[in-house]
């Protein structure tokens, strides 16, 4: 079982290795980094994608994976990894993410799906649709 400390260590190692390996090739935006992931510049155990506010997958997106919006502010990404031991990092993007104090959680992570939920973190918290980027690491 991966502990929260393990997740932080994995994230730190990925960031460190990315700086060493890619140098100036990694752009300042998550989209540019995800394009590198899907071109196999990262080992075969790292995947990334972009989902729009309607739940549609955008380029880049792993082949054979799908995404859907299941409710306001809730999205499910379906993959074909058939395992529970993976880490997902999510970054909301777009105009709502930059101006509306968006918070997010990953309430479910199953063998072939994970769910991401977004809320506008004002009081009271309200579900909000937003574009987002994700990176999944085995």
Structure description:
The chain is α+β, with helices and mostly antiparallel strands and 138 residues long. Strands 3, 4, 6, 7 and 8 form a five-stranded antiparallel β-sheet that branches. The protein has a four-stranded antiparallel β-sheet with strand order 2-1-9-5. It is globular. The two termini are 12 Å apart. About 4% of the residues have low confidence.
What is the residue-averaged pLDDT?
80
User: H/E series, N to C?
Assistant: HHEEEEEHEEEE
The total beta strand count reads 9
Which stretches of 5+ consecutive residues score pLDDT under 50?
A: 24-28
What assembly state would you assign to the polypeptide chains in this entry?
Answer: single chain
**If you compute it from the alpha carbons, what radius of gyration comes out, rounded to the nearest whole angstrom?**
15 Å
Structure class: alpha+beta
The description of the largest β-sheet is:
5 strands, antiparallel
Total of helices: 3
**In percent terms, what proportion of residues is strand?**
35-45%
Shape: globular
The N- and C-terminal alpha carbons lie at a distance of 12 Å
Helix content: 10-25%
Gist of the model:
The chain is an alpha+beta fold and about 140 residues long. It contains 3 helices and 9 strands; from the N terminus they run ααβββββαββββ.
What characteristics describe this protein?
138 residues, 37% strand, four-stranded antiparallel sheet, alpha+beta, 3 helices
């Amino acid at each position: 079982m991966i502990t929260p400390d393990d997740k932080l260590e994995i994230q730190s190692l990925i960031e460190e290795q990315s700086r060493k390996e890619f140098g100036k090739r990694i752009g300042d935006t998550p989209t540019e980094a995800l394009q590198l992931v899907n071109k196999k510049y990262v080992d075969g155990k790292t995947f990334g994608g972009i989902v729009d506010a309607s739940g549609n997958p955008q380029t880049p997106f792993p082949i054979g994976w799908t995404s859907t919006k299941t409710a306001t502010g809730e999205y499910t990404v379906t993959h074909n990894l058939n395992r529970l031991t993976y880490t997902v990092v999510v970054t909301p993007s777009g105009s709502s993410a930059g101006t509306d104090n968006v918070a997010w959680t990953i309430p479910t992570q199953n063998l072939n799906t994970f769910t991401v939920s977004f809320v506008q973190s004002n009081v009271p918290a309200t579900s909000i649709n937003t574009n987002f980027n994700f990176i999944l690491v085995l």
